[in-house]
Amino acid sequence: MRIATILLVCTSFFAACESTQKMVSNDSWMFGDFVRSDDHNPIMEPDVKLDFKCPMRQKKLQWAEKNVFNPAAIVRDDRVWLLFRAQDVSGTSRIGLADSRDGFDFQKREEPVLYPDRDAMTQFEWDGGCEDPRIVRRPDGLYIMTYTAYDQHTARLCVASSKDLKRWEKHGLVMSEYKYRDLWSKSGAIVCERQGSKIEAKKIKGKYRMYWGDTDLFMATSDDLISWRPLEDKNGNLIRVMQPRPGMFDSRLVEPGPFALLRKQGIVLIYNSANSASNGDKTLGADVYSVGQALFSSSKPEKLIGRSDKYLLTPTRYFEKEGSVVNVCFVEGMVWYKDHWFIYYGGGDSRIAVAECWEK
After folding, report:
1. Contact at 8 Å (CB) between 83 and 71?
2. How many C-alpha atoms does 192 have within 13 Å on its Cβ side?
3. What is the spatial distance between Cα 127 and Cα 195, in angstroms, rounded to a whole number?
4. What is the CATH number of domain 34-357?
5. 86-92 contacts: CB < 8 A, separation 24 or more?
């Protein structure tokens, strides 16, 4: 379900080639190199020892037997917590929970914390499952997770909340309005700000903001992080805020990574991307997933003002080049921990790895 075909009519201004926009010319806003922690990677692999009784199939199964990948991450009680996607042998995805006191060695909970159940979300989550979480903390301490519900036909962006990371309340579809209900939508990265080791959602001009999409990128706004409204033009059409670039590593699609980070120079979004076979980066193979970074205006968050010409990560290790999907580095988790950045990513859609960055 990596490729989404979405026919959308967007504003002529934002649909125009990004080269016409005025971009920030220097790279001072970018994160420095992320160095893979090769002594530890991969930090998580499929696990046949984890089982629980699936409420849909009404039997016990090994819910992380096939793949573990694409984790969200957050710091709580001086530990790193991962909310990771896992697949059983049938390919159904559920979201598990693990914690670590050093950022490398994780202890997994026996049962998933978010999964298809006999509830109001069954029609959207079964039997593809609950996929690709991102997590942020609201200023009042509530944890907000965006995730993808997949019914084997359409991916739909959803929201859930928790006070303790273990028990989650599902709040339904982000694109709940009738005209967007069946739109392929996923990958919600909410704008946050770092305060010490704490990463919190941050309002800009009175609204929380979220970048979403997995071919082109769009934006949504919210008052409470639960109910969202897609950003539209005066004609009621979605506004595109970023798109693939011919000839580059991100020539086929772009998709948000972890939260977007409000910094001095603007809003920095680490994003995932795929290379086009026909008009992409000729040094990369077709459909290679690499990680890039982009800068949006803090005063007008839908305005793209800077973008990296080189990727942060591209597949080089065996667990990135091999797996359920070959040649994939896909980041969704990021924390400030022990005075530097850790990013957590899926390798080959089969394992989880970590890389570290010390600020310039």
Report:
1. yes
2. 29
3. 39
4. 2.115.10.20
5. 86/46, 86/47, 86/50, 86/112, 87/129, 87/324, 88/61, 88/62, 88/63, 88/64, 89/61, 89/62, 89/65, 90/127, 91/66, 91/128, 92/63, 92/116, 92/126, 92/127, 92/128, 92/129
Residues 6+ positions from 82 with CB-CB distance below 8 Å? 44, 71, 72, 73, 97, 98, 99, 100, 106, 333, 344, 352
> Where exactly are the structural domains of the chain?
34-357
Q: How far apart are CA 213 and CA 228, in angstroms?
A: 14
Q: Which of 255, 229, 230, 258 is nearest to 136 (CA)?
A: 258
Does 83 score more than 50 pLDDT? yes
Tens-place pLDDT, residues 136-187: 999 999 999 999 999 999 999 999 999 999 999 999 999 998 899 999 999 9
Looking at the DSSP assignment, which residues form a beta bridge with residue 260?
A: 191
Token reading at 304: 């793209």
Whether 7 has a pLDDT exceeding 80, the answer reads no
pLDDT digits (tens, 9 = 90+) for 295-354: 999 999 999 999 999 999 999 999 999 999 999 999 999 999 999 999 999 999 999 999
Distances, alpha carbon 153 to alpha carbons 42, 88, 201, 337, in Å = 31, 19, 31, 38
**Half-sphere exposure (Cβ direction) of 127: Cα atoms closer than 13 Å:** 10
pTM of the model: 0.93
CA-CA distance, 166 to 33, in Å (whole number)?
33
Whole-angstrom distance, CA of residue 329 vs CA of residue 293: 14
**Cα 210 versus chain centre, distance:** 11
Encode pLDDT of 210-266 as tens digits. Answer: 999 999 999 999 999 999 999 999 999 999 999 999 999 999 999 999 999 999 999
Q: Which residues are 22's β-sheet partners?
A: none
